[in-house]
């Protein structure tokens, strides 16, 4: 059985966790990351219990990424910048990794909300990459989001 990487941090749940950013979204993300680590440890790395935490965490990553994209103080030198959006990309990369880890080890049809979260994440990746000027990569993510959306039952 394949083991997934510890994509949150290398600390164990018993070690002190870094203090989250002062925003309420930051606290929610940090708390959910800790809860996910604990659920993966207690119930199994690909358990439905762990996925239920992901369903709460994935929208937070996406919301934070998109809010940082529009804030030039947080995302580098602004719209169209190759340096801009690094925080957004880091958050969306975490979201994508969660989706790929669960999607690669579980029947995604049995994971409530997987398709919706994947389409949202890939669409947002496309937006961030477009803002950075990487149109080819942006288009690939947007097309992936569209394929997922078109395959979802109405």
Summed up:
With 154 residues, the protein is an all-alpha fold. The chain contains 5 helices and no strands. The protein is globular and about 40 Å long.
The chain-level mean pLDDT equals 80
What is the makeup of the main sheet?
Answer: none
End-to-end Cα distance: 35 Å
The portion of residues forming beta strands comes to under 5%
Describe the overall structure.
It is a single chain. The chain has 154 residues and is an all-alpha fold. It is 63% helix and 0% strand. It contains five helices and no strands. The N and C termini lie far apart (35 Å). The N terminus is likely disordered.
List the SSEs and their pairings.
Blueprint: H1 24-43, H2 48-69, H3 86-105, H4 114-131, H5 135-151
Helix pairs in contact: 1-2, 2-3, 2-4, 3-4, 4-5
Offer a few descriptive terms.
single chain, 154 residues, mainly alpha, 63% helix, 0% strand
């Amino acid at each position: 059985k394949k083991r997934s990487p510890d994509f949150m941090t290398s600390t164990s749940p018993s070690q002190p966790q870094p203090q989250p950013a002062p925003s309420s979204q930051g606290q929610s993300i940090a708390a959910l990351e800790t809860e996910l680590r604990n659920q993966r440890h207690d119930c199994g790395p690909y358990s439905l219990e762990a996925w239920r935490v992901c369903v709460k965490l994935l929208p937070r990553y996406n919301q934070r990424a998109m809010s940082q994209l529009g804030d030039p103080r947080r995302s580098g030198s602004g719209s169209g910048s190759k340096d801009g959006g690094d925080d957004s990309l880091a958050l969306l990369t975490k979201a994508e990794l969660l989706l790929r880890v669960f999607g690669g080890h579980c029947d995604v049809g049995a994971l409530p909300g997987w398709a919706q979260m994947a389409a949202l994440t890939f669409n947002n990746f496309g937006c961030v990459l477009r803002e950075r000027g990487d149109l080819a990569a942006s288009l690939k993510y947007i097309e992936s989001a569209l394929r997922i959306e078109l395959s979802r039952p109405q």
